[in-house]
Specification:
Number of helices: 0
Radius of gyration: 14 Å
Number of strands: 5
Helix content: under 10%
Largest sheet: 3 strands, antiparallel
Shape: elongated
Mean pLDDT: 92
Order of helices and strands: EEEEE
């Protein structure tokens, strides 16, 4: 028997598409991640092929929204 689950889903939340951010200033990246098989434990953020960092727990009050300050 082969059981197949859909892959995790990720929705980009912030900054919004087309937003302007100040150069050399911190910016908060925010994404919502869900999986059919249960809780997401880590979200990795990339700038092109370069990993910008990772969030290892959802923000307070949410089970699915992850943030990273870069």
């Amino acid at each position: 028997v082969t059981v197949s689950y859909p892959p995790p889903q990720v929705a980009w939340l912030a900054p919004s598409d087309g937003a302007t951010v100040a150069m050399n200033r911190p910016v908060t990246l925010r994404a919502e991640a869900t999986a059919y098989t249960g809780a997401i434990t880590r979200v990795e953020f990339f700038r092109g092929a370069t990993k910008a960092g990772e969030a290892t727990a959802p923000i307070s009050g949410s089970a699915t929204v992850f943030e990273l300050l870069v």
